[in-house]
Amino acid sequence: MTTIDAPRSPYATTRTGVNWEKWGWIYMRASGVVLVVLIFGHLFVNLFLGEGVKQIDFAFVAGKLADPFWKVWDTALLWLAMIHGANGMRTIVNDYVAKPQVRRILLGAIAVSTAALVILGTLVIYTFDPCPAGADPALVASFCEDL
């Protein structure tokens, strides 16, 4: 009879409660599928519809962010991509960093930077003013002239 050695990670066994590794694995698969749809939708609208990349300027972005649908789309894209990437980085740190103190520092840096970017990105999406006061009318969206 053969025996399988215990995994080398001390975190793999003897834990009770929520299996965060399993939920992280499931999140990576589910968010990956949703991200493919969000990313290709984003690229299609920005690069293939209309005039292609030539159309992307302040007015184009302002027009998109004036629409609640695109605010939700961009927010979902931001949150899923950032958390997906951070979870991947967390997995790499857990796999390759042997010293517990260094691991804690790196995981903390990943968590802080991810939280900061998600918060700042969400603030930009929801507080963006598509019609800034005193802006050149040639540079802002066409619907700003009516305001």
UniProtKB/TrEMBL annotation:
Query: What is the primary gene name for this protein?
Result: sdhD
GO MF term list: electron transfer activity; heme binding; metal ion binding
* Location(s), subcellular: Cell inner membrane
Q: InterPro entries attached here?
A: SQR/QFR_C/D (IPR034804), Succ_DH_anchor (IPR014312), SuccDH_FuR_B_TM-su (IPR000701)
- What role is this protein assigned? Membrane-anchoring subunit of succinate dehydrogenase (SDH).
Q: Which UniProt keywords apply?
A: Cell inner membrane, Cell membrane, Electron transport, Heme, Iron, Membrane, Metal-binding, Transmembrane, Transmembrane helix, Transport, Tricarboxylic acid cycle
Protein name listed in UniProt: Succinate dehydrogenase hydrophobic membrane anchor subunit
Write down any Gene Ontology CC term. Answer: plasma membrane
NCBIfam families, per database record: succ_dehyd_anc
Please name the pathway. Answer: Carbohydrate metabolism; tricarboxylic acid cycle
| Segments traversing the membrane | 26-49, 105-128
Q: Does the keyword Iron-sulfur apply?
A: no
User: What does the record give as cofactor?
Assistant: heme
Q: Which GO terms describe its biological process?
A: cytochrome complex assembly; tricarboxylic acid cycle
Per its UniProt record, what Pfam families does this chain match? Sdh_cyt
